[in-house]
Write a structure and sequence with these properties.
The complex is a heterodimer of chains A (303) and B (147).
Chain A: H1 2-34, H2 39-100, H3 105-137, E1 145-148, H4 149-163, E2 171-176, E3 184-187, H5 189-205, E4 213-221, E5 224-231, H6 240-243, H7 254-257, H8 265-275, E6 279-284, E7 291-298
Parallel strand pairs in A: 2-4
Antiparallel strand pairs in A: 1-3, 4-5, 5-7, 6-7
Helix pairs in contact in A: 1-2, 2-3, 3-8, 4-5, 5-8
Chain B: E1 3-7, H1 11-23, E2 27-31, H2 34-42, E3 50-54, H3 62-71, E4 78-82, H4 87-96, E5 100-103, H5 108-139
Parallel strand pairs in B: 1-2, 1-3, 3-4, 4-5
Helix pairs in contact in B: 2-3
Classes of the chains: A alpha+beta (303), B alpha/beta (147).
């Protein structure tokens, strides 16, 4: 309902902008006709009116862009509120249950496990929000350490398997290297882990009940390493493949809105990859055909 | 035994609520989306005495569910439970037709008391209605058959 109201206000500002620009053009034409004989006035009109028109058009564009941004921001606040409060609500519920009732031992253990998962979820959200803030402020310089990408990806994979309780065959890993030796990337280990973990979490989250995620690490040439994370999930149309990396942006539509998140994951991925001198992009055969996320990072030249 | 429908898509909260409500001797059913909730509540059997309804649901949200119920003239008591605790959200919940509203995280004893309160009022209302109907029913007897 609220988004409908805001869409109307966006439409209003676009129409207002068009009307004002149209009015200015009409005035300009009138000015030219009236001051046809007077070259001085004519030149003044030809300079001043286009300036007005440009101003109005730019103003409208910025205004609409600002409204869109605040819209995403509000969706983000809602999502974060939900992501922060739900695990707290759950932990509180279980703690008060343990406090107020005689709970048998098996149930008690089950409740502890649930609360641990909730605290993990809460921690993940907090870290995600802090990391996004940090990346945006660019306060921290990346620590330039040589990191073995292959080991880092393997570690993230086993973590993801445990966290999402996935059997090994649902999340496969393949390395395609022509020669042996470590593949080193200069960068910040925590940040690179956040990239891989975010991509894996997304692939699993957007897979639906049948998780089939294939991760591939390939040395494309002597200076580049490519990570591919391919899922068989809900996919996305071409038009979304760039937007999804924007901060707070989340894919609209009934399928995707069932999946909860803050809209920060891919923003973090893109920012970190860019800071490491790499590139990231998404490919998809369209809705229902799965997605592939491709990260290219520059390798350290072997000594 | 009172029957309660819990509409909540967060598995942990749904399980915790079920555990506590069952410990209070209620019959509990849990669904995780608005469409299923409406289907359950539009059926005449089983009849629910209270609905605990989350707002942020996949598909039709909680506001939509309660508004649709009231449109169908189904007046089962609804307690809304949600992470959105701003006054505009609370007002929107009541506006849609909720009977009570509790922001998450909530206090378990308070939630249980509010459920009890809703059940009590529901029960009084039912008894009152039955008591008012009794003399009318007695008047409308036809030979040996009565209403």
């Amino acid at each position: 309902m609220t988004s409908g109201g805001r869409r109307k206000s966006v439409a209003f500002f676009i129409i207002l902008g068009v009307c004002l620009a149209g009015g200015a053009i009409a005035l300009n034409v009138g000015w030219i006709i009236v001051s046809w004989q007077n070259v001085g006035l004519l030149i003044v009109g030809l300079v001043v009116f286009p300036l007005f028109i440009t101003g109005v058009v730019l103003n409208t564009i910025f205004l609409v862009r600002e409204i869109r941004r605040s819209e995403h921001h509000e969706a983000f606040i809602n999502a974060v509120t939900h992501e922060l409060k739900t695990p707290v609500a759950s932990m509180k519920l279980y703690l008060q249950t343990l406090q107020n009732r005689q709970v048998d031992d098996a149930k008690r253990q089950e409740f502890y496990a649930v609360m641990l998962q909730d605290s993990d979820r809460l921690q993940a959200t907090i870290e995600q929000v802090l990391r996004a803030g940090e990346l945006r402020a660019r306060r921290r310089r990346p620590v330039h350490m040589a990191i073995d990408v292959s080991a880092l990806v393997s570690e993230c994979l086993s973590l993801a398997r445990t966290r999402h309780r996935l059997p090994p065959e649902t999340l496969t890993y393949l390395e395609r290297f022509t020669n042996n030796g470590p593949r080193l990337v200069l960068g910040d280990e925590d940040e690179l882990k956040a990239v891989v973990t975010n991509l894996l979490d997304n692939a699993i989250k957007y897979s639906g009940p049948q998780v089939r995620v294939a991760v591939e690490l390939e040395q494309t040439d002597s200076a580049t390493i490519t990570l591919r994370v391919r899922d068989q999930g809900i996919g996305m149309p071409q038009s979304e493949q760039k937007r999804i990396f924007k901060r707070f942006y989340r894919i609209p539509g009934a399928m995707a809105t069932r999946i909860k998140g803050t809209g920060l994951g891919l923003f973090i991925v893109r920012s970190v990859v860019a800071r490491h001198g790499g590139k990231v992009y998404a490919e998809s055969g369209g809705p229902g055909h799965g997605s592939t996320f491709i990260v290219k990072l520059p390798l350290v030249a072997p000594q | 035994m009172s029957r309660i429908l819990v509409v909540e898509d967060e598995q942990h909260l749904a399980d915790g609520l079920r555990y506590n409500l069952e410990a209070e001797q209620y019959d509990v059913d849990v669904v995780d989306n608005g469409e299923e909730a409406l289907k359950r509540l539009s059926a005449d059997s089983p009849r629910y005495d209270v609905v605990i309804l989350d707002v942020m649901l996949p598909g039709i949200d909680g506001f939509g569910v309660v508004a649709e119920l009231r449109r169908q003239r189904r007046f089962v008591p609804v307690l809304m439970l949600t992470a959105r605790g701003r006054s505009e959200d609370v007002l929107r919940g009541f506006g849609a037709g909720a009977d009570d509203y509790l922001p998450k995280p909530f206090e378990l004893p308070i939630l249980l008391s509010r459920v009890q309160g809703l059940l009590r009022r529901h029960e009084w209302f039912r008894q009152e209605a039955a008591a008012q109907m009794a003399p009318i029913a007695a008047q409308f007897s036809f030979r040996d058959k009565s209403l």
